[in-house]
Design brief:
With 1077 residues, this protein is an alpha/beta fold. The longest helix has 19 residues, at 465-483.
């Protein structure tokens, strides 16, 4: 069936900011869809609020709206653009929910917009828990005993009913409808937990609906990625098995493709069931993800749920097989059938051929619980991981060890890497393997070392015996390497996935010695192609993984090559922004005629799409793996400055082994991190820095603090995302930090800086070619200095800095770029106190703000920087002077607090955001208001505000509070703040403090839905009072916007004023850019 020619213009909804449960895999699927639809001649309109995405680059869609992904805003875009069709299935749960809300409100029908990709009935049937249950019963498939509740009373009745049918009361699984990453769900083991989780789930479900089902804890879990077209061609793209049994969200489980423990008969039954489900639900133009569970004892198979859209696992399935699910789904949505579309990789087989793979793929989740010390780090049905790494090997053992060393957690495999957990206490070990947690895989190794057998571990963990056997084999082989230290069978060790680092640890050698011995024996990796067809047909796309076999499928050419090192798994502090820079580097260098080689281990990204670069190596970003690729490919140059801290950590080692690092030299990057050198450089340039010192012990730290006076900012040297960075107010806090937070050593001293209180922080991105430098943008932070730049809202152009300070900033930035011999990008953080300018830090590499700046000024900075690194000059590239836009752009951070109930939401120098959004408007207030809408924290225009301030803020806040009163808000406060407000002649209602144990208090108002906004500045940043934490976390749990500092409260006043006086308009990024030019 050829494409639908009645459709001319298609609106694509993106997934908004990166949050836990919805990562950058939807940027990957959105980019594929944009490319596929434009290829077919359609006009593509895109809406997405996330500036760090490739899909929001102006060249990917014909018209790009960086606007909040809400039904109200999308309706304005529909009225303005008049599209023929809306494609909602590539924007994750956000895109799907927004589209369904537009259907419910009749907006699509009213504007003659057709839903493509999946119709409303199919989406409803797949997402609505009751409708899905009825559909499964109709086709005779087994489902868990369950019920759908819309109220607590219904939930109590359902629990009784399930208990009657199954003979057990608890545990029960609660799954809210239409939420992402299992948000709001959980496992209840008693009545109290049951009520708490059901209430939370009902609150978080946009349709106030939860599914309550019998527990299948301990059962095996599987996923099928399935596609279907209008001709009823159905194909399984990939089967995936969870290593963890049921009870752990599939996004938090280690997953393996293809399935390893199903018999052929069981697989065929599951495949047939998948086709029956996709047909019954009615998805006929795209992909679906279907989850199954199987009882390990009886073989009873149960259907858990279905996503009638491209899902998080679709990116994994695409990268695992080489089959571009999102691209094909977009083409099916406009009328093609699978048999009409060619497979890009083989170019001979049609897309209706099921991919076959002759290797094993392992995905491991990446967690950042260290950022949220009070969060519960056990894994349940609500997703908590922030990223993932994927690896490919010939066997499960090889892929598993490669995946663990891809995680960027300092581990180099299953064990034997010097980072072992060494648990002496067997009871602690048993709890660590019985209760799923981020480290459980490593505790399993300790269990083997303590002599526990497979049967014992199977009984405790429910992990299939086959997986346990494989892990035990790896653990046992460590002893063989140890005993053979003079005559190691390198080939056998490598086939089990052992890294040089592990072998060096086991044999008491250096990694370099092991590498040399291995190479002397001729044991080198071979590279195999991902070809979708188990080598039955030739593969045209050079997409490689390493193994230690006989066959090497690498291809050589005459073209000069440049290797780009990616950022590895997403984590807080290093996200999609760095992948954005790597993708731009690939595009730019291709334009210059280079062959580009991408190395990365993150399956969610655009950089690991097989057609982003000329060659893709899906490999861990470790010294060993990268050097192996370098020795095989022999590129002319390598870029390490775009992938964040991950490749930078490898730079010195690679350079000393003959790798030509192009652009700013690793030496300059290290010099910028060297405190003494950097202080001398600032002195030479006549630039100020807050007084500082370094310490290798608590005593030294106290001496420095005494000299420069409190408050001080303390942090380890070489950090990512402000890890272990704290503002300290007295000696006791400093002693506690030095003893518990960091391991100080002469090689890694602790940095102690005078903290500039109430200063304005400024970020600058600058590009330099060694001769000329151009400031991309000066970004003024809304929050004060001391809050991590990745967590602070920031504005381009700056709104409160004087012209004098702005020109000082520009001059200082250019002088620093010249002195550090920058060739490419550099990020500088300044603080402005009074009219004094201080340099906070300099990073001579691409920063996380590069995409935001590029979207604001209409210049692709990362692309230009890559060309500069390859030897081009800014003059020849036509970028020689600064651009100041006429509109305001606000970048706002998005946080995962809702996933960690009870954690404090106060911001500080350690980064906690998982993603970002952008608000653009000609009016600053409206741009800030849009950024809050996009971050799912829309500001109210009327109602009740609760205000509670620390003593230092009370007097300063009066003018801001008066503005809220003038805007018509009712003010509520506890005694201390209420007195100051009352004394200023502003009406306020006094509430009891929580500590007074009298009612009604602020928590009652929050729970009764009587508050619309909270302003609560914390008493002390280091140890906030428990009552304050309760107030802030309850407000977040109830979707009430909370401001924890006065600057954000002031910006919110400005925004609310704009919302009340102006119409919220929408414009494309292309229109904003044409204003600049």
């Amino acid at each position: 069936m050829p494409k639908d020619t009645h459709i001319k213009k298609i609106l694509l909804i993106g997934s908004g900011p990166i949050v836990i449960g919805q990562g950058c895999e939807f940027d990957y699927s959105g980019v594929q869809a944009c490319k596929a639809l434009k290829e077919e001649g359609y006009e593509v309109i895109l809406v997405n609020s996330n500036p760090a995405t490739i899909m929001t680059d102006p060249e990917f869609a014909d018209r790009t709206y960086i606007e909040p992904v809400t039904p109200e805003i999308v309706e304005k875009i529909i009225i303005r653009e008049n599209p023929d069709a809306l494609l909602p299935t590539l924007g994750g749960q956000t895109g799907l929910n927004t589209a369904m809300e537009l259907v419910r409100r009749g907006i699509l029908e009213k504007n003659n917009v057709k839903l493509i990709g999946a119709n409303a009935e199919a989406i409803e049937k797949g997402e609505d828990r009751l409708a899905f249950k009825e559909a499964m019963i109709k086709i005779g498939l087994d489902i868990p005993q369950s019920g759908v509740a819309h109220t607590m009373d219904e939930a109590i009745e359902i629990a009784k009913d399930i208990s009657k049918k199954t003979g057990t009361r608890f545990p029960l699984i609660i799954r809210p409808a239409y939420t992402l990453g299992g948000s709001g769900g959980g496992i209840a083991y008693n009545n109290e937990e049951y009520e708490e989780i059901v209430n939370r789930g009902l609150d978080m479900s946009p349709v106030t609906e939860v599914l309550i089902e019998e527990s299948l804890l301990g059962w095996k879990e599987f996923e099928m990625e399935v596609m279907r077209d209008r001709k009823d061609n159905c194909v399984v793209i990939c089967s995936i098995e969870n290593l963890d049994p049921m009870g752990v969200h599939t996004g938090d489980s280690i997953t393996v493709a293809p399935t390893q423990t199903l018999t052929d008969k069981e697989y065929q039954i599951m495949r047939d069931a998948s086709f029956a489900i996709i047909r019954e639900i009615g998805v006929e133009t795209g992909g679906s993800n279907i989850q199954f569970s199987m009882c390990p004892d009886t073989g009873r198979m149960i259907v858990i749920e279905m996503n009638p859209r491209v899902s998080r696992s679709s990116a994994l399935a695409s990268k695992a097989t080489g089959f571009p699910i999102a691209k094909i789904a977009a083409k099916l949505a406009v009328g093609y059938t699978l048999d009409e579309l060619p497979n890009d990789i083989t170019r001979e087989t049609p897309a209706s051929f099921e991919p076959t793979i002759d290797y094993c793929v392992v995905k491991t989740p990446r967690f950042t619980f260290e950022k949220f010390p009070s969060a519960d780090d056990s894994l349940t049905t609500q997703m908590k991981s922030v990223g993932e790494a994927m690896s490919i090997g010939r066997t499960f053992k090889e892929a598993m060890q490669k995946a663990l060393r891809s995680l960027e957690t300092g581990r180099f495999g299953f064990g034997a890497d010097g980072k072992e957990l060494n648990v002496e206490d067997k009871e602690k070990l048993l709890s660590k393997i019985a209760i799923p947690n981020a480290e459980r895989i490593f505790y399993l190794r300790e269990a083997f070392k303590l002599g526990m057998n497979i049967e014992e571990l199977y009984e405790i963990t429910g992990i299939d015996r086959w997986f346990l056997r494989q892990l035990e084999d790896i653990s046992t082989y460590e002893e063989k390497i140890k005993s053979d230290d003079t005559d190691i069978d390198f080939k056998a060790a490598k086939k089990l996935g052992f890294s040089d680092r592990q072998i060096s640890h086991l044999t008491n050698q250096t990694e370099t010695q092991v590498r040399e011995s291995r190479k002397k024996q001729g044991i080198l990796p071979t590279y195999r192609l991902v070809d979708t067809c188990a080598a039955e047909f030739e593969a045209f796309t050079p997409y490689y993984y390493s193994t230690y076999g006989d066959e090497n499928e690498t291809r050589d050419g005459e073209t000069k090559k440049i290797m780009i090192l990616g950022g590895g798994p997403n984590r807080i502090g290093q996200g999609i922004e760095f992948d954005y820079c790597c993708v731009h580097a690939a595009f730019a260098l291709k334009e210059l005629g280079f062959e580009t080689i991408m190395v990365n281990s993150n399956p969610e990204t655009v950089s690991t799409d097989y057609d982003t670069s000329d060659k893709l190596y899906f490999e861990p970003l470790t010294f060993e793996d990268v050097l192996n690729i370098f020795e095989s490919e022999k590129p002319y140059g390598t870029i390490v400055q775009f992938g964040g801290q991950t490749p930078l950590n490898l730079a010195a080692g690679l350079e000393s082994n003959g790798v030509n690092v192009i652009g700013t030299s690793p030496k300059s990057i290290e010099q910028a991190e060297d405190r003494k050198f950097f202080s001398a450089l600032l002195d030479e340039l006549g630039l100020k820095q807050a007084e500082a010192g370094t310490a290798t012990s608590a005593e030294e730290a106290l001496e420095v603090a005494k000299r420069i006076s409190y408050p001080v900012l303390v942090r380890p040297s070489f950090v990512l995302g402000g890890r272990a960075m704290v503002i300290v107010y007295d000696d006791n806090e400093l002693k506690s930090y030095m003893s518990s937070a960091v391991e100080a050593s002469p090689e890694r001293p602790v940095l102690v800086d005078r903290f500039l209180e109430d200063a304005t922080e400024v970020d600058v991105d600058i590009i330099s070619d060694g001769d000329d430098s151009v400031v991309g943008a000066i970004m003024e932070h809304i929050e004060q200095a001391g809050i991590h730049s990745g967590d602070s809202a920031c504005v381009i152009p700056p709104f409160s800095l004087s012209d004098t300070i702005k020109s000082e900033i520009t001059d200082a930035s250019k002088a620093l770029a010249k002195k550090l011999e920058v060739k490419g990008l550099m990020n500088i953080q300044f603080a402005v106190k009074g009219e004094e300018l201080y340099v906070i830090e300099v990073n001579p590499r691409a920063s996380r703000t590069v995409p935001f700046v590029s979207k604001t000024i209409g210049v692709p900075l990362a692309k230009l920087a890559a060309k500069v690194m390859a030897g081009e000059k800014l003059k020849d590239l036509g970028f020689t002077k600064e651009i100041t836009p006429d509109h305001y752009s606000v970048k706002e951070a998005v946080f995962p607090f809702v996933k960690f109930p009870g954690t404090d939401i106060v911001l500080g120098p350690e980064m906690k955001a998982t993603g970002e959004v952008m608000g653009i408007d000609n009016d600053l207030g409206m741009a800030y208001a849009k950024s809050q809408m996009a971050a799912s924290s829309p500001l109210p225009t009327e109602g009740n505000i609760f205000i509670s301030l620390k003593d230092r803020d009370k007097e300063k806040a009066i003018d801001i509070i008066r503005e809220y009163h003038e805007l018509g808000f009712n003010l509520y406060s506890t005694s201390g703040t209420a007195k100051v407000i009352d004394d200023a002649g502003i009406p306020v209602t006094k509430l009891f403090k929580l500590a007074e144990k009298r009612r009604p208090n602020v928590l009652d108002m929050i729970k009764n839905g009587e508050l619309n906004f909270v302003i609560n500045t914390p008493s002390t940043e280091r140890t906030p009072r428990a009552d304050e934490v309760k107030i802030r976390s309850s407000a977040v749990a109830n979707s009430i916007p909370v401001m924890t500092n006065l600057r954000a409260a002031k910006a919110s006043v400005l925004a609310i004023r704009s919302l009340k006086s102006l119409n919220t308009g929408v414009r494309t990024i292309q229109e904003f850019h044409s204003d600049i030019i």
